[in-house]
Amino acid sequence: MLQNEFLSAEYPCPGGIVLAKTLERQAVLLLVVQALYGISTALSGTFVPVYLWKSSGSYLVIGWFTFAQYALGGLVFWLAGKWVKEYNKMHSLRTGIALSGLFYCVVLFLGEGAKNWAVPLGILSGIAMGLFWLAFNVVYFEVTDPDTRDRYNGWAGLLGSAAGILAPWISGLIITSMKGEQGYRIIFMLSLAIFAIGVVLSFWLKKRHGEGSYQWTLGFKQLAERGNPWRRLFPAIAAQGVREGVFMFLVGLTVYVATRTESKLGLYSLITSLVALISFGVAGKWMSKLRLTWSMLAGVVMIAAVILPLFWEVSYSTLLLFGIGTSLFLPLYMIPMTTKVFDVIGRDQESAAHREEFIVLREMALTAGRLLGLTAYLIVMSTHHSPKTMTWLMLAVGLAPIAGWWWMKPFLHQRVARRQRPQTE
Q: Distances in Å between the alpha carbon of 232 and those of 324, 365, 407, 411?
């Protein structure tokens, strides 16, 4: 899935009027749909691993759920690429949102029995995520260009951080204040309702029919061609995926295991997301004035260094220190990773014409990295799951972005010329 992050230095203050001046109407509407998706995911997604862990007591159950989720998400990206390329991609986006809602319906129906269906649930969630994010990334590419993409990413990062501030905190309070599974049922139902609103609003996005034929093997050809930029981009993105595959669920789960209360996990998310909101705003304002090569290096080193306090003690305090540090420095890494890859996709008209295939290739790299990270997690957790072992695992996968920085270096000083957006309406 896409993690978005940039704030325009020209329009640094959030607000509806400024946003309308910064981005076109379709881009604003896409932001709203993405924000609703993010709010719904923040409400419940943070607590799905906790829900499975509480009913199973097994770290492997959560690992296999996440493995199935990422594996099917990547496969759907590749298979649905033809649908999005040659037909109306909005159908894929709406289906992805609807299936995300269905996922929570199934979890509600299964109750504590969900632990016995972890892999099928991961498959359903992965299909939903794959359909949504494939269509979203293509539409995002079409409604932005190199001059507006940073602004969109900034607003997306800010809105995502804002959703992360309140939604998990509210969910944690609801779950903690109610007995048994009642709190989980309420937040899952809220997520279902928000997904439904997102589907309705998506009908105001213009129909976007694809052009040309989907080339199933284009990505493999790019990787086989000497001098092709994707030979460096692919491993760089995969390195990002190695970290994401483990951190996106293990951090929240570790916070819960350390505190044994959902309200503490919600508060943790509130604090770290608030810091991220500020750091994304500052990064968006000053990033264009920084040397990307060295600022990105500082980012990847620091998001690994903030893991070190956990070797002293895995407690709420050290986890909070880790979370705040990550939120402060992650924009220095994620901003160029996201923006530069999409700039390469749109570097010329020929490349832009194959945007669907390149977005699929990007997701294949992320999926490969995520599955690699999860494989390491499953191997380690099958034998040891002490706090010290998990900390070593987090450090190992947390160092992967440093390799990603090395592969990204040639792209960090490049400027991409403005291009005309593809005409797909």
A: 31, 11, 5, 10
